[in-house]
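Progress report, Aim 2. The chain analyzed during this reporting quarter is listed below.
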Amino acid sequence: MAQRMHWVIFVFMAFRTFSEAEAVEVEFSHGAWDGIFLYIPTSRSLIQRTLDDWNDRNSLAGIGPRLYLPRGRVFRDLNRFQHVVYIDFGAELFDEFERSEAVDPESQLNTTATTLSVSIPYLAATPDGPPDYSLSMANFYDKHLGEHPSAEVVYPAPPVDEITFHRSPNGGGGEFLLVNGSDEIRISFYEPASCIPPTLVVRDEYSASARPNNVPHDGLHGFEFCDTYQRQNEFCDDVAKIREEADRYSPDVCLSWYETSGNGFGCAVICNELHITRGFLDYIPIVLDGKDVPTLHPTSCQLDFDILFKYPCFP
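Predicted structure tokens for the chain:
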């Protein structure tokens, strides 16, 4: 892989209380990202089934949070029967986890990995509310690289057999490949040598949706790292401080990303191919018709951001 994304994690336990909602936001970590993201147009009915499942499980558990599709289209190039799935892929480094005491030499801890994340973006917390929320679906990592700790604790983290990411350092063709058994996700793309900003139409769409991205889920999978390895580091020390409250409010918890610096709207990328097989449909609710999967607005982006952990998440 020609380029890697480097994460630098600094944990701050700065609490900010919002009296009107009795919510608490914790500055959980700081990160930097260098990767590619894109959207996949899909059927609103498929997204609705995923939301119905999430909402029904919360209702059966006697828990209140619900998510809704927005009333209108989130992008102009969708029709009224469509919504989108969001995918990003790139390399991660959580160097905070390297500063661990009492590390078991027999256990392999990989602090650098290439991952692929999936979420359903632009969802609302009320039937007519603004599309401020995403539902986290998966953050895949290569199981052969050992345990990969992540500060993105609301994402389920399914291990897969193989992930490779080849990218030219000066623009040109590249490929991402994720393999699990007989299933695969294959993405080939072209990055122009000179940055081409997204079109004004796309920039307007991004600007209209530039709200805090609250990503809720019904399990705090990232906390399992501290449970399993019992390591002493900044991340696990700070997890311990909020663990009781986080477990009490779950699934009414979320992460929010706030950009602190970066290259604006990023640079347009040409997606030559996106191929997904049926084994991933539980995580990526799309229709497969034997053709390449269509994409919207593939973009490479470099940015620094803060991650905030919030509970309760919903109004």
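The first strand starts at residue 15 and ends at 18. The chain is about 15% helix and 40% strand. These observations will guide the mutagenesis work planned for the next reporting period.
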